[in-house]
Amino acid sequence: MHLVREICGYDRETEWQVWSTPIDEESARALARFLDTEGDGDLLFVYDLEGEPLHEAARLAGFEIRPGLDYTLEASGGE
């Protein structure tokens, strides 16, 4: 199975996902240095992004942080 990783944005009021962008493997691994990934070497869990990790995600994936959204790093199976 091929893993696809995305940075996802969730509306704080509705908690619905309203935005996402893919992040490549190299960038996801670089971002993992800012997260507590102990026991998750494949980065399969959902990681909340805020503060420095969020700013690093924005730099690596090339997006602007939007107020009113909560951000996560997520993995899913792809083709």
Characterize this entry briefly:
The chain has 2 helices and 4 strands; from the N terminus they run ββαβαβ. With 79 residues, the chain is an alpha+beta fold.
What does this structure look like?
This protein is α+β, with helices and mostly antiparallel strands and 79 residues long. Helix content is 23%, strand content 37%. The protein contains two helices and four strands, in the order ββαβαβ. It has a four-stranded antiparallel β-sheet, with helices on one face. A hairpin with a 5-residue loop joins strand 1 and strand 2 (17-22). The longest helix has 10 residues, at 52-61. The chain is globular. The relative contact order is 0.34.
Task: From the structure above, extract its key features.
single chain; 79 residues; alpha+beta; four-stranded antiparallel sheet; 2 helices; 23% helix
Describe the secondary-structure layout.
Layout: E1 2-11, E2 17-22, H1 25-32, E3 47-49, H2 52-61, E4 69-78
Helix pairs in contact: 1-2
Rough shape?
globular
Model regions low in confidence, pLDDT < 50 over at least 5 residues: none
Largest sheet features: 4 strands, antiparallel
Rounded to the nearest angstrom, the radius of gyration is 12 Å
Helix segment tally: 2
Strand percentage? 35-45%
SS-derived structural category: alpha+beta
Termini separation (Å)? 7 Å
Mean pLDDT: 93
Order of helices and strands: EEHEHE
β-strand number: 4
Strand order of the largest sheet: 2-1-4-3
Helix content: 10-25%
